[in-house]
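REQUEST ID: PR-0412
SUBMITTED BY: lab tech R.K.
PRIORITY: routine
TASK: structure prediction, single protein chain
INPUT:
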Amino acid sequence: MHYSKQREAIRSYLKEQVNHPTAEVVYDALKKSMPNISLGTVYRNLTVLSDIGEINRIRLGDGAEHFDGITAPHYHFICNKCGRIIDLNIKSLEHINSLASIDFEGEIDGHFTYFYGLCPDCVKK
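STATUS: complete
OUTPUT:
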């Protein structure tokens, strides 16, 4: 794959974020420094980066795809009130794969686990 200034800007932006932005948020942020970038370019590059494993795509069932620059295995908390996505700093839950395999005749390669509730800000309100 050839070098792309836009792709590198998207990757760099996501590595600095902790808010798991959507494509539109990435586009709005990059538009300031790259006025000629298009939303389509952002979408295409997010897809490429996700497909090659350089970023993670998060689908929460809210109709939007969120993106995460942290590719190491980790878990997310989603606030039921404001929709905020927060990285959780917890030990691996890989033993879930073994538990799920007990009464399952197929092969489990991994899992996605999201935790839900109220974020600290919403609890304070």
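NOTES: The two ends are 48 Å apart (CA to CA).
REVIEWED BY: pending
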